[in-house]
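Lab channel / #folding
Pinned by the channel admin:
"Please post every new chain as: sequence first, then the structure tokens as a reply. Keep commentary short and put observations after the output so the thread stays searchable."

First post following the new format, from NK:
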Amino acid sequence: MSSPQHTLDDDAFLDHVADRLAALPGVEAVALGGSRAQGTNRPDSDWDVAVYHRDAFDPQVVRDLGWPGHLTGLGGWGRIFNGGGAVTVDGRSVDIHYRDLDLIDAVHDDAVRGRFTIEPLLFHQAGLPSTILLAELASNRTLRGQVPRWEYPEALRTAAPGVWWTNADLTLHYAKEGHARHGRVAQCAGLISEAACHAGHAVLARRGEWVTNEKRLLARAGLSGIDDVVAGLGTEVPDLLRGADRARAFLEAAVRREGIGGEPPRAE
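Reply from TO:
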């Protein structure tokens, strides 16, 4: 398969996209995100572009640019991620994300008080924390306009680890009692993986490190060893029970090293 032909080099391409988006009604800023903003991209990586807006923004103005692809309406990906989609520009894949600055201000106000929400979103095993909007601002590269950028709030470092670890603890409990004990291999493995992601969030929250997605979450939190636990689960009930216990021991040791302790309440 031949590579797509580009008429613009990367810098000219990015300027073209940023200029077109920044000129749209209601758009206050445009930023580059993802691997290309962080310098970890591969040559074939797509381009993540955030469109920051307030109340007056209508996604139809993006569709009217005529870039082939699909874009949702506002709220198409839930309250936090707000919506967006994938389009093709100059033979390149561009993921456009809508970001509501009023919502971001509200999320920050909560975060400095140690509060946040977690919402379900496809491909995010532990759920989507509202603070991902602040994490993006910390790592994105602003192309046009201005966006706020904040340090990790101390109150969030204090409050968030316990929330995440409670979720991990409850998920581990159900992985063992709800699935391992009944020989349900896939569901047991899935919940162990989910619990590891909750624990990863707990560790990075304690460190005051922003998280933008779960792709490198376990590696950054030092939890890649959970791979060995999942790989060695087996299929028989005794093996699954031992595997669930190994997962708990591994994750408990990891969070205790970070100073996250105590025994969260456990559902029966």
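NK: DSSP finds eleven helices and eight strands in the chain.
TO: also worth noting, Confidence is low (pLDDT under 50) at residues 264-268.
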